[in-house]
Amino acid sequence: MTKTKKYFSFFLLPLSLIGLVDSFAIHQKIYGGYYLPCVIGKSCDIVLYSKYSTLFGIHLSYWGLAFYSFIFILALSNLFIGKKFFRFAYFSSIFAGLAFSFYLLYLQIFLIGSLCVYCVISFSDILLASILSSIIIFSKQK
Q1: 91 and 133 in contact (C-beta within 8 Å)?
Q2: Which CATH number fits domain 3-137: 1.20.1250.20, 3.30.70.560, 1.20.1440.130, 1.20.58.760?
Q3: N or C, which terminus of the chain has less Cβ within 10 Å?
Q4: Kind and range of the H or E element at 54?
Q5: In whole angstroms, how far apart are CA 134 and each of 3, 27, 72?
Q6: pLDDT tens string 97-127
């Protein structure tokens, strides 16, 4: 792995941790009953408890925890082991996560009619990880 690619990998690890913490905060709100302040009025509750907040009967916070944990493990594997398989799995997962995040953003804006700041943080996080991943993929250095 080139120095440039390794350098960007150091940014991908914290991004996966940000997503993990964000998903955990939402999970604690839903299942732990903890107070989660919403910067944009009460719109977080509207989104977090909507009929779109589950997938196959499992709340999206669990999916987020699983996804970001997986991404973190792949980023570590990519950084320390550096096999092509880990890079491919990481990049594929990131871009699949971005596509799903766009879908969730669409749901919030057009079907639910409300935005959750924590969901927007997750979207921004995965978008930034996708941009950094694209830079890594299309880097001219060998």
Answers
A1: yes
A2: 1.20.1440.130
A3: C
A4: strand 54-55
A5: 16, 30, 17
A6: 999 999 999 999 999 988 889 999 999 999 9
